Amino acid sequence: MKSFFYAKSNVLNEQISIIEELRRGLLLKAISPKEKAKLRWHTLINRIHYSFLLVDKPAPIEIIKKLFTNEGKANLNDLAKQIYRYKKALDYLYQNWLVTEKQVSPKALTDLYKIAFDGKLMSSISELDEALKYVQINPEHPIIQAALAQIVIYSLSPFSVDNEHFSQLVFLLFLYKSGYDFRRMVAFEEYFFHDRLNHKIAIDSSLKKQNLTDWLDYVSRAVSNELQKTLRDIDFKGKEDIVNVNFFELNERQKNILSLFDNPDNKISNKMVMKRFKISPVTASRDLSKLANLGLLLTIGKGRSTYYIKV
């Protein structure tokens, strides 16, 4: 691994203070369940859309929308499969890494990579371990640690393909680990894409000089700006609907399905919903898929072994 160094500039310290204030505002913001589902849906769609654009893989919003509203799952092309796998990786991060004292290990990175991508590990485990020790040895602020992890893993390029795309997941991994999921309502990828020239300059300059200060300043400003945008969108309901408004409405049966998860340890299958509500397999599947697409449930497994847990 290269010998990187960084300093905590006045810009970085100021932006971290602003981020903390904005984060408190977002966490305390009163949001109805329907509006929360709507905001999380928009964030998911934008996160995937812009993360793919950042690596020059256009994934049109309309295609992503159809995939996650049960309109386009037959005969999936390569892009659709990649989108599904990326979402699965996002779900994995939320389920397994949100607020944990676990250290991120080389195995954690390789496990995450295998969920989303198909390449092979090219670096040694010791190289990955060294990179992770550099990121985790000091108890830095979560924004700093996540930004360090992203650029260090990007620089190392430990896998045969998709290292840049993977580094975006690593950024989220370290944020989630410290509880900085921002209620899953903020898509930093959107800012990075629209400001992609400065984004590239910050990365290239930092790697060339092996001084990561500029990158940390840039990421902190990006997070601050995107948080402010999110809070404005919530206050003014500025998000344009990209699906029919009825998509966010739950019928009484779907609400009752959610009540089955009052015990957080419950795991619900399609068959259990069929029997409980005396409905067909297709209807049960449609209800559970909608709840999962809205971010209210997580899908675990596949095929007949699929079950759902509460988010």
H/I helix tally: 14
CATH homologous superfamily title of the largest domain: Fido-like domain
Reported by name, the CATH topology of the largest domain is Fic-like fold
Q: Order of helices and strands, N to C?
A: HHHHHHHHHHHHHHEE
Mean pLDDT: 90
Biggest sheet features: 2 strands, antiparallel
- Rg, please? 20 Å
Top-tier CATH class of the largest domain = Mainly Alpha
Beta-strand content estimate: under 5%
CATH architecture of the largest domain: Orthogonal Bundle
Overall structural domain count: 2
Shape: globular
Approximate helicity band:
55-70%
**What structural class results from the helix and strand content?**
mainly alpha
The largest sheet has its strands arranged as 1-2
Describe the 3D structure.
The protein has two domains: 10-236, Orthogonal Bundle (Fic-like fold), CATH 1.10.3290; 250-310, Orthogonal Bundle (Arc Repressor Mutant, subunit A), CATH 1.10.10. The chain starts with 9 loop residues before the first helix and ends with a strand. It contains 14 helices and two strands. It has a two-stranded antiparallel ribbon. With 311 residues, it is mostly helical. The chain is globular, with a radius of gyration of 20 Å. The model has no long low-confidence stretch (mean pLDDT 90).
